[in-house]
Amino acid sequence: MAACGREFQRWGALQRRLLASALDAVRPDGVVAYETCSPHLAETGVVVADVLKGRDDIETLDARAYLPEVGGLGVGPYVQLLPHRHNTHAIFLALLQKRFSAGGPCPHRRLPLASVSVGRIA
Fold first, then answer.
1. Catalytic amino acids?
2. Is the pTM of this model over 0.90?
3. I need a surface site. Which of 35, 42, 75, 108 has the fewest CB within 10 A?
């Protein structure tokens, strides 16, 4: 069990660096899709929450709106697909849009997505 905890810490640190880097690099009004093949909070929502702490230049979009054909996505704003419910891997998706200026309005429209996908190969 201790080894598993170290793996989550190692992957989580990498995921935080990758997501923060993508958010820094995306243009204003651009969208970053953070995806992982994991159902574990330590690699999904916790990573997003940690990276967004102290940032007022990023808006979380409701990812469910971009997958209208998929049911059972939960309360949002993130999407967590599950093998037993969606017949797929346990895929997590967060859509994060950079505001035009810190604290400024962020228009809601469908934009091409830049994607950061981190997963493990077994």
1. 37
2. no
3. 75
Q: Which two tokens stand for residue 38?
A: 């994991």
The pair phi, psi for residue 96, each rounded to 5°, is -125, 120
Predicted confidence band of residue 122 (pLDDT cuts 50, 70, 90): very low
Helix ranges (DSSP H) in the chain: 2-25, 45-52, 83-86
Local structure of residue 83 (DSSP, 8 states): H
Residue-level pLDDT at 8: 60
Q: Please state, in angstroms and rounded to a whole number, the distance separating the CA atoms of residues 121 and 114.
A: 22
Q: Which residue, among 25, 22, 32, has the nearest Cα to 97 in the 3D structure? A: 32
Q: Give whole-number Cα distances, 113 to 21, 40, 109, in Å.
A: 15, 24, 12
